[in-house]
Amino acid sequence: MILALTHLIKALKPKQSPISSPRLTYARGLIIQYKLGISDWETVEQIRENPYIQYFISCPDD
């Protein structure tokens, strides 16, 4: 899984700032899901509820 994410990030290297890249935000969300071993819906709930995870994935402030 992590190897696949590494290849994804290298293949889709953004031309903008890597911190705000939607591709990296998606990849970081997948890392959270993989590390916690949770479903898609549980991952969304974790991101909504946890400001530390929001910071990790560079979630924009609302």
Describe the structure.
Helix content is 66%, strand content 0%. It is an all-alpha fold and 62 residues long. It has a domain at 20-62. The mean pLDDT is 77.
Low-confidence runs? none
Oligomer class: single chain
Please provide the count of β strands: 0
Shape: flat
Structural class: mainly alpha
- Rg is 12 Å
Keywords:
single chain, mainly alpha, 62 residues
Topology:
Layout: H1 2-11, H2 22-36, H3 40-49, H4 51-56
Helix pairs in contact: 1-2
Briefly characterize the structure.
The chain is built from four helices and no strands. It has 62 residues and is an all-alpha fold.
